[in-house]
Fold this sequence. Notes:
This protein is mostly helical. It has three domains: 2-117, Glucose permease domain IIB (Gyrase A, domain 2); 132-279, no CATH class; 327-484, no CATH class. It is built from 19 helices and eight strands. It has helices spanning 2-13, 45-49, 71-89, 98-116, 119-131, 135-154, 161-173, 175-186, 191-202, 222-243, 246-309, 316-326, 332-335, 337-352, 357-371, 376-386, 388-409, 436-461, 465-471, and strands at residues 23-28, 32-37, 56-59, 63-66, 210-211, 214-215, 414-416, 430-432. A four-stranded antiparallel beta sheet has the order 1-2-4-3, with helices on both faces. A hairpin with a 2-residue loop joins strand 5 (210-211) and strand 6. Helix 14 (337-352) packs parallel to helix 18. It is globular, with a radius of gyration of 25 Å. It starts with a helix and ends in a 33-residue tail after the last helix. Residues 93-106 and 477-504 have low confidence and may be disordered. This is PTS transporter subunit EIIC. It comes from Streptomyces citrinus.
Amino acid sequence: MAENKNRDVAASILPLVGGAANVTSVAHCMTRLRLGLADRSLVQEEALKALPDVMGVVEDDTYQIVLGPGKVARVTPEFEELVNDGKAAAPGPQPPTADALAAQGAELRARQKAKNATPFKLFLRKIANIFVPLIPALIGCGIIAGINGLLINLHWLPGVTPALAAIASGFMALIAVFVGYNTAKEFGGTPILGGAVAAIIVYPGVANIDVFGQTLSPGQGGVLGALGAAVLAVYVEKWCRKWVPEAVDVLVTPTLTVLISGLVTIFGLMFVAGEVSTAIGDGANWLLENTGIFAGAVLGGLFLPLVMLGLHQALIPIHTTLIEQQGYTVLLPILAMAGAGQVGAAIAVYRKLKNNTSIRKTIKSALPAGFLGVGEPLIYGVSLPLGRPFITACVGGAAGGAFIGLFSMLGTQVGSTAIGPSGWALFPLLDGNKGLGVTCAIYAGGLLVGYIVGYLATYYFGFTKEMMVEFNADVDLGESPEAHAEEGPSAPPVTGTPKEPAKV
């Protein structure tokens, strides 16, 4: 029955994105179905957003349909199968002509890239594409590590805990290899060569090598070293493809790629990346231990704007480095407070706009996902279009971040063993230096502070008198969005499409 439901969702989406012939690629991340489309003008966006299972859509380098965690992983294979079936059944190219589609698609892509694709954002997107595919394994292994720690503390199942430790730690022991593989793939090289060069970093035999008077340690440099080694391997490989004769390319290119990149990795990158990784870990801990309240407020308060600008992707390798170094990232629980402020703000909007059944319906349907850390529906359907509630939501996030930062100054670290989940969904992944009970209590306290401050700030300061007159009416915003825009001529409608996805 569940499979039929997922297939029904896929079947309802497919015709609204132009049918199988219009779909050039299918992928998914934590919450979104990501589609490559030949012609975006064929998308029936309003009808698509009206589907019960669609939380929103995102215009980016791919066309992204927000379905939520769990559901997207089940709908995607069904959708892909329908696309393949549709293309197999199609007799051939259909009107409009291929030339017309290509011209229109090129125009749309150029317009979109000119609008959003700055060099820095493109670089951050590449970094995100390297690490995002690793998140499911980080989550699974992190939860298993948490369960194992609980069993050890309770002295339960002593014969099972070593096996769970191996299951939880195996991926992290080899994460550099996966980073190297994904890096080479993302930068246009042969993925397996990137993985091979990155594998040098975790090979136990490097402990027999002295560099700059110091003995290397297996894993030194971590994911940053793996990333650098794989990028180097891509450039060496491309140089070889350009100059090595085709007759011996299959032998010479892989050999030179691994040899040159491997030597540079051993005698340079591992040492440099190790120093940088150590500095990141020490810097994050020093920041929270000495300026915890201020740092927590800044991180928690600015995370939503960072997401809107696409700059949050720069934090992914930092999180991964911290997890690799000390078993958890101390930054993610603080950043998760942005979601708490968002939830508190949404509840205040719900209570404030008692007559606006459309916004209240959106909030009621989106709040469960918001509590679990999925912020897209509340951000793009409620707070951001309204304007001021987005700012007051950030205030709530700052308060929650300051709360957790305070305890960091007092010597109690709150961390997460994986990246991705937020809100209540982060509880199974929590870890720290003072025991699971204390860690969970502090994190729960931060969420509560975020909810309360986000609610109060929004309820008392989130609306002007003009906004109350404009929005506190019994209307359907989906039918006349132009009548319900935020103050200012360029503000998006309350039910408008997000430009960048947010995961808080």
